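## retry 2 of 3
previous attempt timed out at serialization; input unchanged, resubmitting
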Amino acid sequence: MNSTTPARYCAANCGSPTRNETTLDKEPTRWTYPVAVAEIPETGGHYEISADAQTRAVIAASASLRDMPQLDATFDLTRLGDSVKVRGTVRAKVGQTCVVTLEPIDNEVSENIDLLFSPPVDPLLDPEAARKSEKGEPPEPLEDGNLDLGTIATEFLILGLDPYPRKPGAEFDLPKERDDAPAHPFAALAALKKPQ
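## retry succeeded, writing output
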């Protein structure tokens, strides 16, 4: 299979799942893996995707990472009427820089995904559905009957990155106070008021 044309899906009961490399869309910062909701089997769909080197390099640059030798994600999709339940995990190996020592460090990211996608609700056409959506956490919008698993994986990867990576044992050295420095601005005045 051409790696630039992602397979649509692997059904949950299709035997051994397949791993498909996906590439960047025309937009230089997107990892894209489109799935048409209509093609998700009634029994659910299982997907395993892996970003190629070019995609990883662009995402790493946009996230201020030194490099990203691995970026994979697995998904299980379940249709719930017009909605789709998306569960999965994104995993990556990333190269970062210690904020204390400025030395290179390697970290692993593993972030769970649990989302519900639904078509947008028009409150004028379906006020009851709109009220239900307002009561709880609103679902993610399902546009044009498609999901982009690459975009979802990228968003959760960014959420899972440590914004302040440190090498084990690395700590900031706070500047020491001078021994001869007064304890507070009025320390010198207090000393003058002491009885001789």
